[in-house]
Design goal:
Helix content: 40-55%
Shape: rod-shaped
Structural class: alpha/beta
Number of domains: 3
CATH architecture of the largest domain: 3-Layer(aba) Sandwich
CATH class of the largest domain: Alpha Beta
Radius of gyration: 31 Å
Mean pLDDT: 83
């Protein structure tokens, strides 16, 4: 049975108007064309759908069943057409974004806020999880795009990555931490204390940490760690214990200014991270996704500028672009660290 949507529309119009001529006029076709369409429909269905009477057209029992299903089909088609139209604009629809633990708080939340403000009818779903889980969700099309660690994403050949800015990572402790009294701090000294880490430590970062400890294994279980996937919780743990965590400046600037936290003067470029926009190469992003990514790029660059010395140079686009390609040559310790 090979039915066309026009057959559904013609049958419904005939049932509503109960007259071939009136139904044909409503459909903007000729009466003979409508008669041929209904005859063809009945032939394909193998049943009479309408009684032709002098006082008008009336659906048969089989016709009433067909009309019920036909209305449902056209309703679903209408919903599909609406969704496709919404894909062409930003007035409504849905956008599902997956983000890693750090970018979620560094700039993704602010990007979502911008979208919600400018497009309040857009349904936004934000999922924060490890990069491995996000890549799986992206492949299953459970999210429209992901934002996570660039190095990890690049190992997956089934995705397209757009690198974002480079962020220096700081080893963060409470003000008054025992290590702040040491004249020189080595990574081996840091690893004597518990580390507040995310559940998924990037392999390159884990390798450096284990080397600093003198271990050759590849398991985070070899480190004295506190596992947590909420930066705000990590900061609370560090502020009230001797645990140490890893944070970008954008997430600790307020606590540093308040004298609650401090950074350790440990020079380790490998502590830095570059995040990326991650998409499926076979999917065309919707206008909503494209605008969200523009917000994410802008806000990520803004967060990265917090790593730059600001006293003697203003942020410029060229320097921002250079910053995204390589780690900074100059570093800055927090005021709290210098005082200690």
């Amino acid at each position: 049975m090979d039915l066309e949507l026009r057959h559904h529309r013609h049958a419904i119009a005939l049932a509503e108007h109960r007259h071939f001529l009136r139904a044909a006029r409503a459909l903007n076709i000729s009466q003979p064309a409508l008669s041929r369409s209904i005859q063809e429909l009945e032939r394909r269905m193998g049943a009479v759908l309408f009684h032709r009477r002098r006082d008008g057209i009336e659906a048969t029992d089989v016709g009433r069943v067909f009309l019920s299903r036909a209305r449902a089909v056209l309703a679903h088609v209408g919903d599909l057409e609406r969704e496709m139209q919404l894909m062409q604009g930003l007035g409504a629809g849905e956008l599902r974004v997956g983000a890693g633990v750090y970018p979620s708080e560094m700039f993704v939340a602010a990007a979502v806020a911008r979208m919600a403000k400018s497009h309040p009818q857009l349904k936004l779903t934000i999922i924060s999880n490890s990069i491995d889980v996000l890549l799986q969700m992206l492949r299953r099309r459970e999210i429209d795009l992901a934002i996570g660690d660039l190095k990890t994403a690049e190992t997956d050949r089934g995705v397209r990555t757009t690198p974002l800015a480079w962020h220096r990572g700081y080893l963060v402790v409470r003000a008054g931490h025992p290590l702040l009294r040491e004249p020189k701090i080595r990574l081996k000294d840091v690893l004597r204390f518990p580390l507040a880490l995310t559940t998924r430590v990037p392999p390159d970062l884990l390798s450096h940490l284990l080397q600093g400890r003198g271990e050759r294994g590849a398991s985070a279980n070899l480190l004295p760690a506190i596992t947590c996937d909420a930066p705000s919780v990590m900061k609370t743990i560090v502020a009230e214990s001797d645990a140490i965590t890893l944070m970008p400046m954008s997430l600790i600037s307020r606590e540093l200014a308040e004298g609650v936290l401090a950074t350790l003067p440990v020079e380790a470029p490998w502590l830095g991270r570059t995040f990326a926009l991650i998409e499926l190469p076979t999917r065309t992003p919707s206008p909503a996704a494209e605008q969200f990514m523009r917000h994410a790029v802008e806000l990520d660059a803004l967060a990265a500028r917090m790593e730059m010395p600001t006293a003697r140079r203003a942020p410029r686009l060229a320097r921002d672009a250079e910053k995204r390609d390589s780690p900074p040559r100059r570093t800055r310790q927090s005021a709290t660290t210098r005082r200690s």
